Amino acid sequence: MDTSAVVLRDQLRQAVEECSARGLVFAAKWAAEQLCSLSPTTLGFKLPASHASFAQESAQAALDAEEKDSVSLAKCLFDLREFDRAAYKLQKCNGPRAVFLRLYSQYLSRERRVGEAAPNSNKSAASDTALSAEESDRRRTAGEADRELLAIRDELETLDSDSSIDAFQLYLLGLVHKALGQRLRAQEALLRSVCAYEFNWSAWQLLETCVDTVQQPVEQLSAKVSGAGWMQHAFMAQLLVEQFGGGNNEFGVHHRVLEQLFPNSQFVLGLRAVRHYSMREFEEARQLFVQLQHADPYALELSDIHSNILYVMEDRARLGELAHRCAALDRFRPETCCVIGNYYSLRREHEKAVGYFQRALQLDNKYLAAWTLMGHEFIEMKNTAAAVDAYRHAVDTDARDYRAWYGLGQTYEMLNMPHYACNYYMRAAALRPYDSRMWCALGSCYEASSQRTPAIESYRRALLGTAENEAVAITRLAHLYDDAGDRPKAAYYFQLLVEHAVKNAGALQDTAPSNSGLPLQGQGQMDELATACLFLASYEHDRGNPSVALRYLAQVVDGANSGGISQQRVDEAKAMMRAVSQNESI
pTM score > 0.70 for this model? Predict the structure, then answer.
């Protein structure tokens, strides 16, 4: 076997062992999955420089060996979720592994108490007095929890000042800083952690939540993790999918490295599936999720995203099948509740859908997707106040959730408050600069508030993104320039609109109302094309090109044969044809 393959296997095996010993089960599982997805044959790929092992000083290693029995007992209690008892058993231990397990147990105990004290997402108040008492208890518990966090932070910072902190303790320090709302300090600690020991996937995932690509360029972050070996490619690929939807060209570079290293990895295949979903290539994404399901029929990871795809495709049969499969595997997973909620939403049973999204939040109050999807359901139920509350919970959980910002924009647009809506759409567009939907929504709000110049800028920006809303942006730009009296630019965009229709349907007269891709439906859609042709005919006639004008007018008259164009537009075209013909004959 290639030396690089042997090194990679040793790295991952040690990662499974080190992470498991510290209770980092998700990091251990991720490493084990990549280990099992390695090709049995020679990799033929030269590994970048990395930290091949988790090295300890001899004194620290001796302490860990001396306290091995106590740590083993505490780890058993930890696995039984008796966190306070586990921490108590390690009070007199000073080895790095024991210190980490003790502080991590205290942290998880604090998280559990805060979660239990959090207000129920679907409980209505019986009285103001009861609510006030519950809120008082919750705040008191939160205050105690914050004092616990500060104590954990102080102990870890003392270790850091003594230069005796290790990579896993730096991860825990980042976790505590994140819980205290200190994002930049958390990012600094996590960067140090992954550079000291790169195979703790939990540290990479937490680092991803601390990154704000609006304020910090991706290239700058990539340079900071460039010394972290091949794990940087897994991190950067996931970051680009999560924050840019895979629209960034760098994704392909990182993904190809991962495919070479782990040709059978479900994680790598899942990145491709989520990227197609983010780019709204739903059929390609669905097929990849089917492959994931066949590869591991008992896995529930990413099933919520799979259900989102089937919901958008309005595939009720497949969504129902997925919901039954997830419920049979585990009814008490947030992903299962999300899938079932999407199923009821597709059936227009919005109250049942809200109930399942609330159940998902009871199981995991930081489950971001449930807040956002619940907001969508409240919009369908015309309950704008509840929708705003749900979306705000989502952005409080993760301010980088563009769907929640977009939902807030839609809600305030429904309330006829375009200035507020513009603010939220701007936040969504900043997070997803390649998504044309964000820019079209922003342009529409600017139009509603009579801000023509920023509306034009927004629609032009939409043309640089995904092609999904291309016709919408072109149509609005043409009308905005026409209203502004800039006929050359209006003609340019009306011409683009006609070319778009011809490209998507072959010829204007063959453009079916259902697939032309224009923003309106049926007759309105074809009328928009007819309006473009009438404008272009008038424009070319004024420029002294009557033959070109007649050609545009003929397209309107001929297009009437396929239906969809109003009689008024046809009559206008015939009248203009007579006028142009008479002027040409004089």
Answer: yes
